[in-house]
Design brief:
Elements lengths: L4 E2 L2 E2 L15 H12 L6 E8 L9 E2 L3 H9 L5 H10 L6 H9 L6 E4 L5 E2 L6 E6 H32 L4 E4 L7 H14 L4 E2 L2 H7 L9 H5 L12 E2 L6 E2 L2 H14 L12 H13 L5 E3 L5 H18 L6 E4 L4 H19 L8 E4 L5 H10 L5 E4 L1 H4 L9 E8 L2 E2 L16 E7 L5 E8 L11 E4 L7 E4 L3 E4 L2 E4 L13 H14 L2 H4 L8 E5 H14 L7
Parallel strand pairs: 8-9, 8-15, 12-13, 13-14, 14-15, 19-24
Antiparallel strand pairs: 1-2, 3-7, 3-16, 4-6, 5-7, 5-23, 10-11, 16-17, 18-19, 18-22, 20-21, 20-24
Length: 554
């Protein structure tokens, strides 16, 4: 099958070339064979993909990974080489006809309904509903979960970091070197951006997804210099191009001397580290328009900050504006406040406009807890570079999404368990978000496919799917249907177009702003209500009693 057209062009394959029909568990192929052997493989099945518990001890999740899912099914086709490998993996007794069947399958008869990517979502509500021939849909289970579980987990982690940092701070994803392999690194950069981060250090992600890139230099660059004598070409053209400063190094040294002898700053430091000054000067000559220095290689306040200021003031003389500093160790709250005081003193003493507003970036094993602690201590950091804890989702390893059969041949199916949280909600459903008077979402409700949809201003009974006494009437002020058609198969339904990454990010930010603050807080957040209609409640419990074997006491 030729991949379906997206806005006039063919939908590209998955970003990662490893995402092929073989990226699945062996039992999906063994089941496909058993369905085929029994003549059941074409039976129409409906599966729900959902999760049971919000991650990180929170009460919300950001849904991500949909675009990669659609790219995967748009290009789903087994090659001869792949079929030959499957033949080797399965029992020798498998009939040749099955492999002929595999040659012909694609996703042209599969329908996918999904909540839009970037939406805030909750447990039990289907993120995706997949309809199609049971053998084909079964082959999609593992790759779908693989593409959605981590994407949603890391987007949620990013959103939680954004929530703690606040809207005004710049958040930079610096996790590539510590990520779980190349795919973990690239995926994390993409989905941290969705969750509200502003930029990444990951060049590959910048190229693939158009995410803004940020980064300057490391401690190695600073310690690679021994003295100012190493700088051979000392000239720097003024920003307006009107003239050239032939000895920028001398200009820097003059400024350092002025700072040393200044009334307000003289007592803070004595001699600064000259090799560090050489590194800063050299970097400024290379990047005069965005000079940002890592100031903690030797001593932040006695060397790094004064050296940075000398170079920044020299650049200012030539019409350039320095970018700021990065702190990568030590007491970040204290050092950021001291650096800010230093910058403000320079602005006041030398009359340099906005020098006091110099950007201070902090990095060094930051996470939600350290951001929260910095807020409580009081700090002057403008931007945070966050890596390990963010991209590895250190606080929780996996989301735990599941893929459950809810209907076959128009017959609802249920999965029972002694653990009520693992009982599935049967049948093909429609899902709605009901909003209250203040504009906040109040409750998500699932109904049977053919039930009338909730209406604005009309009272509806919302029931907890499993707890009889938990129920409430809601009069919605706005009703939003959650599942939309992203892959219509051979049906004539209109297909939603896949938005660009920036639009997914904007949706995520808007969605988070819509939520009631008590659902979002870090400590003891209020659970968001997920419900079913009265009719669906009755049906779940009727089916449950029908399918559960009756015990017998001797």
């Amino acid at each position: 099958m030729e991949a379906k057209k997206e806005n006039g062009g063919v939908i590209a394959g998955p970003t990662n070339p490893m995402v092929t029909p073989l990226l699945t568990d062996l039992y999906q192929f063994t089941m496909a064979y058993a369905y085929w052997k029994a003549g059941k493989h074409q039976e129409r099945a409906v599966f729900d993909l959902y999760f049971r518990k919000n991650p990180f001890g929170g009460e919300y999740t950001v849904f991500a990974g949909l675009e990669e899912v659609i790219r995967f099914i748009a290009n789903f086709r087994l090659t001869e080489e792949e079929i030959a490998f499957i033949r080797e993996c399965l029992s020798a007794s498998c009939e040749d006809g099955f492999f002929d069947y595999l040659r012909g399958i694609d996703c042209s008869d599969v329908e996918v309904y999904s909540i839009p990517e970037g939406t805030v979502v909750f447990p039990k509500i289907p993120l995706l509903r997949i309809e199609g021939p049971i053998a084909v849909v079964q082959l999609l289970e593992t790759p779908f979960l693989n593409l959605i579980n981590y994407a949603s987990l890391v987007s949620t982690n990013a959103a939680r970091h954004r929530n703690v940092a606040g809207k005004s701070k710049t958040l930079l994803e610096f996790g590539l070197r510590r990520a779980q392999g190349p795919d973990g690194g690239v995926g994390a950069s993409k989905y941290c951006y969705v969750g509200g981060f502003d930029a990444t250090s990951n060049v590959a992600a910048g190229k693939l997804f158009g995410i803004p890139l940020r980064g300057t230099h490391s401690h190695a660059f600073v310690s690679s210099y021994m003295s100012l004598d190493e700088i051979i070409d000392k000239s720097l053209r003024r920003k307006d191009g009107s003239s050239t400063c032939e000895d920028f190094v001398s200009l820097v040294q003059t400024w350092l001397s002025k700072i040393q002898w200044s009334k307000s700053l003289g007592g803070i430091f004595g001699e600064t580290n000259q090799s560090e000054l050489a590194a800063f000067t050299s970097y400024a000559l290379a990047f005069p328009n965005n000079f940002l220095a890592l100031v903690d290689t030797y001593d932040v306040m006695r060397s790094g900050v004064p050296n940075f200021c000398a170079v920044a003031l020299a650049l200012n003389d030539l019409g350039y504006k320095a970018g700021g500093i990065r702190l990568d160790s030590g007491d970040l709250a204290y050092l950021s406040c001291e650096a800010r005081k230093f910058f403000c003193s320079i602005e006041k003493e030398f009359g340099v406009p906005d020098f006091g507003k110099m950007i201070i970036t902090a990095s060094n094993d930051l996470n939600e807890e350290t951001l929260d602690a910095l807020n409580k201590q009081g700090h002057e950091v403008d931007a945070f570079g966050i890596g390990t804890y963010l991209v590895t989702c250190y606080a929780q390893a996996a989301l735990g999404g599941v893929f459950k059969l809810v209907e076959i041949n128009n017959q609802p199916r249920i999965k029972l368990s002694e653990d009520v949280s693992k009982v599935s909600i049967p049948c093909k459903k429609r899902c709605y978000r009901l909003y209250g008077k203040e504009g906040y979402p109040l409750v998500d409700i699932m109904t049977g496919e053919n039930e009338p949809s909730p209406k604005v201003g009309e009272r509806i009974l919302c029931r907890h799917p499993f707890q009889e006494s938990k129920r409430a009437y809601v009069v919605p002020q706005r009703v939003e249907e959650l599942l939309r058609c992203y892959w219509p198969g051979i049906s004539d339904k209109t297909r939603e177009t896949l938005p660009p990454l920036k639009a997914i990010r904007e949706r995520c930010i808007k969605q988070l702003e819509l939520m009631r603050p008590d659902h979002m807080r870090r400590l003891n957040p209020t659970p968001y209500k997920v419900s079913v209609s009265a009719k669906l409640y009755d049906f779940i419990h009727f089916l449950w009693l029908n399918e559960a074997p009756v015990g017998e006491l001797q």
